[in-house]
């Protein structure tokens, strides 16, 4: 929720209950709302007199905040309150009342209505859900109208993607998307849209599967593609490597990386095939939560060997199968009361190059709990390893062959290293990726993160413009795909760190973790947000969870930097210094680490080390000062800002 005047001055009330009262009045404008109705909505668990007194207090707060310039818009009499008058513009009213429909209008419905006002009161929550439902119905009508009026497959694809960005489980839009790609002669893209459809429907509360109509459509498209391939006879002529290359070429590089999770082989006499199957399914489900990864159905050992019975020892890696980029396989060994799982990720496009391998030893207690814990751990470690591997692979590729996804992946190593020249080049690659595919929520999220880091490093020539661009890109990422956990948590970090709105950031991080509890980045970013509001113990718990999930993360220096901040705010300066040393060793170019590390050194009186750290900080950010540190600080509590600043002062920062 935002309230501004023409000069950009914020008039948003300080307390959430007063904001909620203003929201109800705005949604009802210009109609008046009964005072008793507002009291029952916002203070339903209080006695009548208490509720009325609280309402009077909110009325006074709003009057004080709007006067003298805008007080005339808030009209209060004995029984009613209303918001109306010249000079008042309310976006939700304009969106729902306008008769004209357009893509731009539809896109404005992408954000969750009043997402920062959840959980105020049970009665208000009910009102808010009803308001969101009305909002959703309006966006659905607009989207369906645009889709029905679209002419030709290209226009239909654009209209369907815009509708699906808001109504992710709209199966009619998915069918239109699948059909249009097939009409353009791209059955692989149609199959990819079908996979996305399955994933979207599975996220629904009832865990739906595609309808018979959708299954019949994709079945017909696949049959036609197979018939055409058979008629040409070209498939039989290609080599194994050629098939994989042709498949990637047909799907245009793909918008996601396709990973096959093979059943884990159980070794030894004490077999437990249930754990092997369940763990493979758990890993598949976890990987499917990452927007840039697409899991293809697991291949059974019987399928792999072509035999009539399972023969694990006879498995040959399926280099000739082009429908997956990488494959995860592994083994399970049982011993009395213990189990050892070894998994490895191999690149099918590179003849079986091992991308990552991990060994996990656990006590065999509750099989289901073990399956959940191991699945989450393995999935969390695979995501950053895949990002790092794909980035390196793209750096070896030829520039003119690159798709939007390839350009995105090529940018990531430059972001991880934080070396200035490579970082600037990464920004250019992300912008090129966005030009190639302006509908990719993942690219929007990473470019928002790039702008955030640019400000944090002190590299932005125009910090205000960078902050505004980070906010715009993050919001756009969420609008394009509200189910993209990485985009949500990146948007949250932008709001928490740059916009200094940590309460809103926490709401976005919680939505991200609800969608993907294995995303280590979301745990770390949510830890930052809790630290910003002063809950440093919860912040520490969340950052430690990020480290447990991804102990070899390419951004481990970022996780350690988060620990420095939290330990500093908890007054555990020794732990802050220890984490600061680790973070600097992992990445000596990340200037944000030095700031909280330097403050902890100042509190401990370690003058010699503080002088060295201060000099290294100023080499990365010349002219950085105590005033700048305070101005950029996202902490809400004055005591936290003072603790940070006093440590820097003691360490000799100008």
Descriptive labels:
single chain; 3-stranded antiparallel beta sheet; alpha/beta; 9 strands; 28 helices; 6-stranded mixed beta sheet
Summarize the structure in short.
The chain has about 650 residues and is an alpha/beta fold.
% residues in beta strands: 5-15%
The parts where pLDDT drops under 50 for at least 5 residues are 233-254, 300-322
- Number of helical regions: 28
Shape: globular
Please provide the count of β strands.
9
Molecular structure report:
This protein is α/β, with parallel strands linked by helices and 654 residues long. The protein is built from 28 helices and nine strands. It has helices at 16-28, 35-42, 48-66, 91-97, 103-107, 122-149, 153-166, 171-183, 187-202, 212-232, 240-250, 273-288, 301-305, 367-395, 404-417, 420-436, 441-456, 463-480, 485-498, 502-515, 520-532, 536-549, 556-570, 573-586, 591-604, 607-620, 626-632, 638-650; strands at 33-34, 74-76, 80-83, 257-261, 265-267, 293-296, 326-335, 338-347, 353-363. Strands 4, 5, 6, 7, 8 and 9 form a six-stranded mixed beta sheet that branches. Strand 7 and strand 8 form a beta hairpin. The longest helix is centred in the middle third of the chain and has 29 residues, at 367-395. It is globular, with a radius of gyration of 27 Å. The chain starts with 15 loop residues before the first helix and ends with a helix. The relative contact order is 0.05. Mean pLDDT is 82; it is low at 233-254 and 300-322.
Which helices and strands appear, and what pairs or packs with what?
Layout lengths: L15 H13 L4 E2 H8 L5 H19 L7 E3 L3 E4 L7 H7 L5 H5 L14 H28 L3 H14 L4 H13 L3 H16 L9 H21 L7 H11 L6 E5 L3 E3 L5 H16 L4 E4 L4 H5 L20 E10 L2 E10 L5 E11 L3 H29 L8 H14 L2 H17 L4 H16 L6 H18 L4 H14 L3 H14 L4 H13 L3 H14 L6 H15 L2 H14 L4 H14 L2 H14 L5 H7 L5 H13 L4
Parallel strand pairs: 4-6, 4-7, 5-7
Antiparallel strand pairs: 1-3, 2-3, 7-8, 8-9
Helix pairs in contact: 1-3, 2-3, 6-7, 7-8, 8-9, 8-10, 9-10, 12-14, 14-15, 15-16, 16-17, 17-18, 17-19, 18-19, 19-20, 19-21, 20-21, 21-22, 21-23, 22-23, 23-24, 23-25, 24-25, 25-26, 25-28
